[in-house]
Write a structure and sequence with these properties.
The complex is a heterodimer. By secondary structure, chain A is α/β, with parallel strands linked by helices. Among the domains of chain A are: 21-100 and 178-258, 3-Layer(aba) Sandwich (Rossmann fold), CATH 3.40.50; 357-434, no CATH class. Chain A has 19 helices and 22 strands. Chain B is an all-alpha fold. Chain B has a two-stranded antiparallel sheet with strand order 1-2. Chain B is globular, with a radius of gyration of 21 Å. The chains are: A alpha/beta, B mainly alpha. Chain A: Keywords: ATP-binding, Nucleotide-binding, Repeat, Sugar transport, Transport.
């Protein structure tokens, strides 16, 4: 593959690669402003009939905002959308769908308590004489699933389905009715290889019929396989439009992050020492983890990669007392800690950064200072016999906030008022208030901006070089590829492979993402 | 999950059968059967046709209100103002009927035709305000309905100075209070018909489907093009409409309009729904179980009265059963979760 320089690839609209089909959807100067955040700034985007146009960018780059506006789930602050040449203003998702613009969002728009058929027709139920025509609904749902080649029983409730099956229902919902624009937001994130293949076949069918497809993905492989053109977004702005077949990884990452790849990921000096964590044939009670063995030493960064729902998160959660263990052992610093409660694990020096900072990480209504000290509040450094040592608390938290460059530097501000990146910094500062031997980062850079990302990577490298063990659980493949000296790849609860040093390549890791003999 | 059938006499299998019964139908039908058996043993007067008919009549009002409460709970809310809605309906309908009856004493049905709709609409108005507050202004259901509970109660007291409203035509009480046919009283028929109507609404109309969808996943419903605000509004309006009908029937039964007829209704109706498996988080619940839930509380109350249980003890027993049912239901959900692996 030819690797063009970044200047050559970041083309101006005049020299942009163009697809052959007629212009279907077009935005001019599209902007979305939220209080304190410009989610989208002057974005020009075009979609032609019969092309797959990929959107590429980090979390928070504006991809989701763009597609939610195009799908009618959100309204722009400024700018214009034209659909088949005419100005377009969506009233809501229903109106967009009526025009043939359908979206598959990453957050599922399914109601768990309803059946597949009921979900497929939600908002557009067939009615006869004022009553629901349930027989027809079921019949059409079955026909649709069959046409798409999904082996699903239309009568089942969505809450009983696996994530991949829910994804299929979501896709089926988009394919219902006359389609002219299909928006797919990381549709393969939870699909198996075979399901991915059948999705790609569907996409090709749709392309051939002149449907324009907007496709969000993080996977280079998919860009090459399915996309025609790629629009790269960064911090809400369009940074380039490239030909999908000519783009290589280094260039795309550089466009996406705004700096050369060598500046994003630090060089880490690994010095593996004694084994800190040793997991032996662990199986959780809920079956998310099956017969997993792995080890983490002091002074190294070990990655766990895999699809959403492969059990990579659950491995750490089972060690941390968040999931019941059915079989196997967990050894930490030579001690059998199987089934220990979270508080005891923390005291032993095991710290876990949860992937969802809103749901599990932060008390959003309270200040940065209270959040940072929460897990260490009972220790002598912050607590006297009766009263809290608020002066010491403030000093410690200021020092950490300074180290992590919290912005704005206002420790009394409530967490909800910080940006995602700064919320993540507070969450990490919280881990640093205690003596920790092993840091477990579960999706540490979800939804943070580039500079925070770089800061977090630097911190992880520093922790490792200072002699701590780091376990990095991530769906962001470059993260695992560039930071870890060892990596495990998981699939459906099992460890598929363990890779060392320069064995950790995109092709190798991805080849173990799917169903295949280890 | 399919298990190989063993000989049914094996005690192991019998207990497994019981567990499977519990898993498939839940705790409520089992509790109801236990209560029926227990009270039949405790008192000879319990399991008689007259007493059972009596229980059904007593619970018909709660049943109707619980049906409305259930609809609101499906959308992940609840309505604390159902008691005040009853009071408002009762007082305004009685005032209307009494005024018309005084003017046209020889035309009782005219008085009923004027007074009953007045009461119904006044009760409905409470629901309209609830619906506007929750759906349009986005205030939490707890606050809106709690506030409206006080406002409605206040209005009912103010209109009547706290005394019962007399002068309702005899025909109203005779037809809708103590009347009936085929051995069942009018309120029982009303509850039956309304239960069927709500069943059809929830299972066979778009609006019903949207109640479940909005409560199950508000965002998903919105992304699917469901008019979520209208759906929420309708939930409170339909709830108030049903409650108003219960209010009219209750007025007919009491033969007076009273401001304090519904004070225990909010909690009772929520309890009947919860014991019937209606989730407080929205999205789940079905009509037959809610009817059973209301009847169950009626049976327990009546059974304890017939068997001479102290009224102080009765309150405690009801509360304990509710907590027990909730715990059993949670236990059941976990068992199902484990089995489906």
């Amino acid at each position: 593959m030819i690797a063009p320089t970044s200047d050559a690839i970041v083309q101006q609209p005049g020299g942009a690669p163009s697809a052959a089909g007629t212009l279907l959807l077009e935005t001019k100067g599209l902007s979305k402003h939220y209080p304190g955040v410009d989610a989208l700034v002057d974005v020009d985007f075009e979609l032609r009939a019969g092309e797959v146009h990929a959107l590429f960018g980090e979390n928070g780059a504006g991809k989701s905002t763009l597609i939610s506006i195009l799908a009618g789930a959100n309204t722009p602050t400024r700018g214009e959308i034209r659909f088949r040449g005419a100005p377009l203003v969506h009233a809501d998702v229903g109106a967009a769908r009526a025009r043939g613009i359908s979206a598959v969002f990453q957050e599922f728009s399914l109601v768990p308590q309803l059946t597949i058929a009921e979900n497929l027709f939600l908002g557009d139920e067939p009615v006869r004489h004022g009553f629901l025509d349930r027989r027809n609904e079921l019949k059409h749902a079955r026909e649709l699933l069959e046409r798409l080649g999904f082996a699903l029983d239309a009568d089942r409730r969505v809450q009983e389905l696996s994530r991949a099956e829910q994804q299929m229902v979501e896709i089926a919902k988009a394919f219902r009715g006359d389609l002219s624009v299909l928006i797919l937001d990381e549709p393969t994130a939870s699909l198996t290889e075979r399901e991915t293949e059948s999705l790609f076949a569907l996409i090709r069918q749709a392309k051939a019929k002149g449907v324009g497809i907007i496709y969000i993905t993080h996977r280079m492989v998919e860009l090459r396989r399915i996309a025609d053109r790629v629009t790269v977004l960064r911090d809400g702005r369009k940074v380039g439009l490239v030909d999908a077949h000519a783009a290589d990884e280094a260039t795309l990452i550089q466009m996406m992050s705004g700096r050369p790849i060598s500046q994003v990921f630090p060089k880490v000096n690994y010095a593996p020492g004694e084994t800190l964590l040793s997991i032996e044939r662990l199986t959780t009670a809920d079956g998310a983890v099956r017969d997993v063995s792995l080890a983490v030493k002091a002074g190294e960064i070990v990655g766990i990669a895999g699809l959403v729902g492969c059990g990579k998160s659950e491995v750490a959660r089972a060690c941390y007392g968040l999931l019941p263990v059915a079989k196997g052992r967990v050894l930490f610093c030579g001690q059998d800690v199987t089934g220990w409660k979270t508080r005891r694990m923390l005291d032993a020096g095991f710290s876990y950064l949860p992937p969802d900072r809103h749901k599990e990480g932060l008390v959003l209504a309270r200040s940065a200072i209270e959040n940072t000290s929460l897990s260490a509040l009972h220790l002598p450094q912050f607590s006297g016999n009766v009263f809290l040592k608020r002066k010491q608390e403030k000093d410690t938290v200021s020092r950490l906030a300074d180290q992590l460059k919290l912005h704005p530097f206002d420790l009394q501000r409530e967490m909800a008022a910080f940006s995602g990146g700064n919320q993540q910094k507070v969450l990490i500062a919280k881990m640093l208030t205690r003596d920790v031997k092993l840091f477990v980062f579960d999706e540490p850079t979800v939804g943070v901006d580039v500079s925070t990302r770089v800061a977090i990577y630097r911190l992880i490298a520093d922790l490792c070089e200072a002699g701590a063990g780091v376990l990095l659980i991530s769906s962001d493949l470059p993260e695992v590829l560039h930071l870890c000296n060892r990596a495990y790849v998981m699939f459906r609860g099992h460890v598929q492979v363990e890779l060392q040093g320069n064995q950790i390549t995109e092709d190798r890791v991805l080849s173990h993402f799917f169903e295949r003999a280890a | 999950m399919t298990i190989e059938q063993a000989a049914p006499r094996d005690p192991q299998t019998q207990s497994q059968l019981l567990v499977r019964l519990f898993l498939s139908i839940g705790v409520l039908p089992i509790l109801l059967v236990v209560a029926l058996v227990l009270f039949s043993l405790m008192s000879d007067n319990f399991f008689t046709f007259n007493n059972i008919a009596n229980v059904l009549r007593q619970t018909s009002y709660l049943t109707i209100v619980a049906l409305g409460q259930m609809i609101v709970m499906l959308t992940a809310g609840f309505d604390l103002s159902v008691g005040s809605t009853l009071a408002v309906t009762s007082v305004t309908s009685a005032l209307g009927m009494a005024a018309m009856a005084a003017g046209y004493p020889d035309q009782p049905w005219l008085a009923i035709a004027v007074g009953a709709p007045i009461g119904f609409l006044c009760g409905l108005a409470v629901g309209v305000v609830n619906g506007l507050g929750v759906a349009l202004l986005g205030v939490s259901p707890f606050i809106v309905t709690l506030g409206m509970a006080s406002v409605g109660f206040c209005a009912a007291l103010y209109l009547t100075s706290g005394t019962p409203v007399r002068g309702i035509p005899y025909e109203f009480a005779d037809t809708f209070g103590s009347g009936g046919f085929w051995g069942l009283k009018a309120p029982v028929w009303a509850a039956l018909i309304l239960a069927i109507a709500v069943y059809v609404l929830l299972n066979w109309t778009r609006l019903g489907r949207h109640f479940y969808a909005v409560g199950g996943n508000l965002k998903a419903a919105a992304l699917s093009g469901v008019h979520t605000r209208l759906t929420l509004f309708m939930a409170y309006a339909v709830c108030a409409g049903l409650t108003s009908i219960a209010g009219l029937l209750l007025t007919a039964r009491m033969e007076t309009g009273e401001a304090n007829i519904g004070t225990s209704m909010p909690l009772q109706s929520i309890a009947a729904c919860v014991i019937a498996g209606v989730s407080l988080r929205g999205g789940t619940g079905n009509v037959p179980y809610v009817v059973l839930g209301a009847v169950f509380f009626g049976v327990v109350e009546n059974g304890m009265n017939v068997s001479g249980t102290s009224s102080y003890l009765q309150i405690g027993v009801t509360g304990a059963i509710l907590v027990f049912a909730a715990v059993a239901d949670e236990f059941r959900r976990r068992l199902i979760g484990r089995r489906s692996l």
